[in-house]
Structures are given as structure tokens and as C-alpha cells.
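Lab notebook, bench 4. We co-purified these components, and the gel suggests they stay together. Before we commit to crystallization screens, I want a quick structural picture of the whole thing.
Request: model the full complex, all chains together.
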Amino acid sequence: MPEVHVPVGGSMSPRSSDSDLEARASAALMKLTRYWPDDPLTFVTGHGSHLCTPEGEEYLDLFGGVATVSVGYGNPHLASAIAHQAGQLIHMSELYLNPVVVAAAERLGEIAPRGLTKCRFVNSGSEANELAANIVMRATGKTGLLALEHAYHGRTPIARSLTYQQGWRNAPPYVHNVQFVPNPYALRRPKGMGEPDFYRWCLDRTEAAIKHAHGGAKANFAGLWVEPIQGNGGVIMGPSRYYDELIKLVHAYGGLVVADEVQTGFGRTGLWFGCQHWSETPDIVVMAKGIAGGFPMGAVSTTPGIAAAMDDFLDFNTYGGNPLACAAMLATIEEIESLRDNIGACGAQLAEGLCGLVREFPVIAEVRGQGLMLGVEFDDDGTLDPNPKLMAKLHMRLRERHVLVGKGGPEGNIMRIKPPYCLTEQEADTFLVALRESLEQIN
Ligand SMILES: Cc1ncc(COP(=O)(O)O)c(C=O)c1O
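Here is the predicted assembly.
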């Protein structure tokens, strides 16, 4: 085995301290979605839950590279697994067998929800949803797809057609065979409706869509997409019994359920997958982001019976199931195993601290989430009117205190907290103090 030196923590970025990086980026890169486009932050290294600037300033990252840096920045076990595999074989294509790829598929089959023992690897969440859509349509022989309001499923043609938020519906064409059904967003349920009635109403609307959509047919219903906790949509989730009913409903009409676990998968909610908090099991699980600790990878898991629908489907993915990504995934799984208690403990600490703030600050409409996937929704002093201005100010104030969080929801009024799983008790406290002080300043 070749000896590989793994630099962890040192600056590896050529000319990383250039003050004109912003101008060079604008000249050389297409315009990208960035927080603070006029005054972007530059990072060159990271460790644990911290990102470091070229000048050596540290920022506590409560957004974890958009819920992707599951096992922490600069994780030595992950870095050395990648380096070791890089010394063995970086790429060979799907045309041949490789033991690391097979081991990764076997390990995924062990941790996946009940019965979903077959998988295929891809490179991103969008690709995984695209593949899942192909599987659903081939396995059922039908094409009618349902997704939930507020859903975000990615940027490729079918994935963005399954995406509800208008802001992200900016890249036609869309496939015509998708329609949207209510999400269990109890905070914003119709006025005067109790919570149990609201969930019943959502299910009834879903059943009506299944029955009457696409040429008035049960006959064309193929499947429904659901995120166990909607991420980009604003950290929205219903009670687990809601999802159980939803799955039973879809199955009653012969459809398949796809759980998009791109954000909730790989330990984020305290279990390997968010849907493992439910009693019913979806038919297909889509994953990416935290799967390989930040190394680009995605996967789709399903039952052997459903997977068989793809047996005679001509398909190819140059990088999917790359040995380097598979080595990264196996190392990430090992690290998550040792961090799972911390996900529960730190998640509970953050949730308790945030709920404490609800009593003090009437601008907080709700705190919700599970494990290390939490959201805080801001309104205009108890009116329920979304308050994106406050969220934007908080975002800035926290940045000034070297704390990074995410923003989300169609109105941009929801704080998204999805840190690496190695967040410490002290770091969680640092964030809670920074948030309280920022709220005091703004109020
Ligand atoms: C739930 C969900 N699905 C799919 C995607 C798309 O993943 P990717 O950006 O890797 O294509 C995302 C990305 O944020 C996501 O949050």
C-alpha cells in the first residue's frame, strides 16, 4: 500500500489569501447562489464544527455545509480513508467490479430501512431523485407523481418538477405528470381547524389527488415523494402517525412511496434514516449530502422486488459508485456510529435552549425539528406574518459573532440549524448565547 500523507488543517489553497478573490471569482465563475454576495466569506480549512478563513479566523458552522458535513470538517478518519483509497484506485467505471463498492452497498443494505437491501450509487441528491422517478415509473408502469407543498427535491428535470417552491421553479421545462398535495404544516393550517382535523384534511386532499389526477385515474398513479422533515421548505414535519397514514394511503392505490432522505438520512435525526421514526416503511429511500461526509455521492435504496424493475433498463453513470466515494461512505458510517449519542444529546440541548427563547421573544413563532435538524420560524410579534427581515438581520448579527446558520422557507423567515454531528455542548451553548444576544440587540 502506498504511504499517503494526509494534511489536516494546513492551508492547501494556492493564493488563498488574495484580497481580490471575490473579483477573480466573479470573472471566472458563473454567478452562484451565495449568502452575502457583496461581502462573501472565504474559507480554506475546517476542523470539527469550525470553518477557518485564510487569515485564521474561525466560524462556528451550525449549517454544516447545508446539512452535508455530517462527521465534521477535517475528520481524520474520513480524510485518511479517502487518501488510502486514492492510493489504491480512484476510478474504474460501473463496467467492472470492485470490493469497496460492493462492501459499501452491503453496509448500506444493513443500515437502510427494513427490506430496502438493494441500492444504486449516484453523485448527488438530484440524480438520486431522478433515478428514483425512473424506478417508480418502471416498477408501476404508470407516470402520475405526487409531491408535497414546500418540497425541494433538486435541480435536474424530474427532481425540479417535484420541487414546489416558486423560487426554485425557475428553470423550465417541467415534466407535466407531477402535482402537489398539502404538507403537514400545522402552524399554518386553515384558521379554526384543529390539528387532528388538519391532518385528516391533508390526507383527504392527497387521496383526492391520487384518485382524480392524471385523467381521473387511480389508473395512472405511480408514486408520492416525501421528505421526513422538509429541509429547504422550512424544517417542516408532521407527527409520525401522519406519515404512516400517508404510506398506507399510497399503498392502497397501488403506488410507491419515495422518502427523500437527502437531508434527514445518515443519522441527522438520531436514527440512520428519518423514516425509521415511522412504523410504516417507504418503498424507496433517496440519499446524498451527509452520506459520505461531504464527498460527492448519492444513493437510492429499495427492495429487491422493486429493484428488479430496472434489470433490463439500459442505464449508465460514469462516476456513480466510484470507489473513492464508497470508501468515504464506509468511513463516514463508522464515524456516525460513534457520534450517534452526541446527535441525541446536542439536539436535545439545542431544542431545549431554543424553546426557552420562545417564551422570551414573541417573534419566534415556532421551534421544530428532530435530532440535529432544527428550525426556528420568525413572525411579526405573534401575528404569524412571516418575518424575513428579522431573519436576515439575525443572519448578519450571527455572522458578526462568527456563527453561521441557514435560512429557508419560501419567505426566508426560518432559521435552519443542521450542524456537524460532532458539535460539542460548549459550542451549542456558544450558539444559543449568540442567538439570544442577537435577538436582544435587534428587538
Ligand atoms: C431533500 C433534498 N433533496 C434533494 C436535494 C438535491 O440534492 P443535490 O443538491 O445534491 O442535487 C436537496 C438539496 O438540498 C435536498 O435538500
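DSSP finds twelve helices and 15 strands in the chain. Worth comparing against the SEC data before the next meeting. The longest strand covers residues 364-370.
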